[in-house]
Design a protein that fits this description.
Length: 207
Amino acid sequence: MEQRSEFPSGTAGYYDEHAQAFIESTLNADVSGLYARFEEKLRPGCSILDLGCGSGRDSLYYAKCGYRVSALDPSPAMCAHTRSLVDIPVYEMQAEDMTFQEAFDAVWACASLLHVPRGSQALVLKKIAAALKEGGICYCSWKYGDKDREKDGRRFTDLTEASFRALLQQVPELREEAVWTTQDVRSGREDQKWLNVLLRKSGRQLR
């Protein structure tokens, strides 16, 4: 059953207004290196929440790989496009509004938590922890830096290794498995640096 919640017009509104351009710029982006790091931690057929599914690129990939995928995004346009690509549950809501309890083996939050205000980052990570089953794994990424920014109506929270680790101290349910940086794979954005993180919920591992 799909769920829905109200959301501010700013960031989600940007993705609705610029849906086609965003989809075209991200749908074919090569993130195979990130997939590989994540899938090393997964078992076949496990359940994944694509948190901030955007164009649906990653939901489609993981569904084709045989995982049981659900998706979530606050933008109606992004949810609609994801549904057009793949037949999975798609929840139209903000990450802050999630109420899942031990529902997923893994959470994939690629370039989505960067839109969560800094003061709500710990809350969202706690929501992710609640959504994960014991021993579950989560991938998250943020643009690299130490600023809170707004660009074209979108809100951005940038993190470094140090600020991420300070944030993680507020979320004892999750522990760090890996932290690394990458360059943006989109054409013309190679100078953009990203912070990538793998987190494990306390308990036995998936594999």
